[in-house]
Amino acid sequence: MHLVSLEQVGASVEGRTLFADASLGLSSTDRVGVVGPNGVGKTTLLRIIAGDREPDAGNVVPRSGLRVGWLAQDVDLPDATAAEVVTSGDPLARDDEVAALLERVGVDGELPVLRASGGQRRRVALARTLLAPSDLLVLDEPTNHLDVDTVDWLEEELGRRRSGLVLVTHDRYVLERVVNRMLDLDPPAPDRPAEVHWHDGAYSSLLEARAERAAQRQRATTRARNLYRKEVAWLRRSPKARTSKPRFRVEQAELLREAAQADEASQALELGTGATRLGDEVFHLEQVSITRGDHLVLDRVDLTIGPGERVGIVGPNGAGKTTLLHVLAGHLTPDEGEVTVGRTVQHRVFEQLASVPPAQTTALDTVLEIAAHVPLKNGERLPAHRLAERFGFDGRTQRTPVALLSGGERRRLALLHLLVAAPNVLLLDEPTNDLDLDTLAVLEDHLDGFEGTLIVASHDRFLLDRLTDRIVGVEDGRLTEHLDWSGYREAQLAARHAATARTAVRPRDSSDTAADNARRQAERKQLRRLEQRLEKLQAQRQQLFQEMVAASDDAQMLMALQEQLTDTDEEIASVEDRWLEMSLEQG
Fold this sequence. Notes:
- With 587 residues, the protein is an alpha/beta fold.
- The chain folds into 4 domains: 2-202, P-loop containing nucleotide triphosphate hydrolases (Rossmann fold, 3-Layer(aba) Sandwich), CATH 3.40.50.300; 209-266; 283-493, Rossmann fold; 515-586.
- Helices cover 44% and strands 21% of the residues.
- The chain has 18 helices and 20 strands.
- It has helices at 42-50, 82-87, 95-105, 118-131, 148-160, 172-177, 203-236, 247-260, 321-329, 363-368, 384-390, 395-398, 407-420, 437-448, 461-467, 485-504, 510-550, 555-586, and strands at residues 2-13, 16-27, 31-35, 57-62, 68-71, 136-140, 164-168, 181-186, 195-200, 283-292, 295-305, 310-314, 336-341, 347-350, 373-375, 381-383, 425-429, 453-457, 470-475, 478-482.
- The protein has a 6-stranded mixed β-sheet, sandwiched between helices.
- Helix 3 (95-105) packs across helix 4 and helix 7 (203-236) runs antiparallel to helix 8 (247-260).
- It is globular and about 65 Å long.
């Protein structure tokens, strides 16, 4: 079902054109992920689609009566409790629905919203958006301020929905598992606005398309190098004739030189650790306890981290991940227990809200105050300004006073300061917050080959899987160790099912018996309905296969049948998930 169309839409901010001539149509089966560097116009495009902003050019044509669920980055909530705000999304919703949603996003329903933290307000706004009936969900960074468990739930929730979806997120697993179309905003150049590239498929299909574009650029770069050599040879043939060379030939040679060097910034680097090598001991915690008020954050925990280890720290919001990092960094003295730090450890910490303070000093000067060169793993030294270029600071931005940089740019600069210092131990607290996917990829490329010890607290499951070789879970004052995120998630689910089973066998009052029997009977009926639905969907899937074989010579018909097959497979997966969930609940 058609939802909305954008016809040659353009938008500008403060006189700068973000994008132009963007045309797209969205249907109820579209689940679109929007990606691109910070500042390229992703949020502006979402606001236009959601009807929260008029385009500067072109037309937006929504379907009559279209209901849009819009989650903005900056939310404006009324003076009310969290439960009242969420209920305003759908006044007809049952109290238990509202309570369940608030529990899933980790917010107390009685919490006064105006006294809540920024992260709590975002989670309340997300719950309100999900509760409200909608034909199209438009979500701007819905995974921000969510712990890994809640992000995992949100991924499943979005996957089950039948409405259209457009979202911006840096969570690559959400983009891979939920999305079926990608919209890639290519950064603008001096002579053009951002380019819009459409890709059918999930995040991996976008990466394949980007790789092909990069290969084309590489071929163009090779041709440019060959032409550049010819131009330089021509310019050098006769010193006497240099002053008479046509200006356009000189300018052409300069352009070719720039094109020939254009691919250098994309080459991966492996960062070194300066002059001090790690010894055999890095961190050792023994029977460490931390109490905050009446809350026991860490309860007699033990932890050993050695040289070269790569450890991910995960757990619910407020469980104590940041506290654990601060104990390791020596910023927090435990109430009980011992913390041993190796003599050769030179660590740096990247805080959740890390940002370089505004100043009139230029961005590059703040980097050079730390170091002019960055050691690489291969023994070479990279000029600091070259590393800055890789993190999105071009020559103009490097010369910009820090006070004039955006908040996101100052956060990236703080990350750059950390890497330029070349410590042998890195402690990163939610480093992916407010980073676009391109900057994330650069960061991960550099950390991939980091030869020191890496400890990272993050809700980004992709980053955890890529950069860490073990996971430490923090919850209820205890630490648990796992091989990877999947192992942590499986252990969590097993613990919850065990807790549910223990609750199920507790003695009950006779007054509860009739209600429990009615509930179990309703659940058995629901299971039977799910099983019947699965049988119909499997038969439908088989029928579609037969029709595809019969239509093998009709490309248009094949494409339509493939779309139906994709929708059927998605519904099968959703029904199977629900059936499995209910089966486990019934034991």
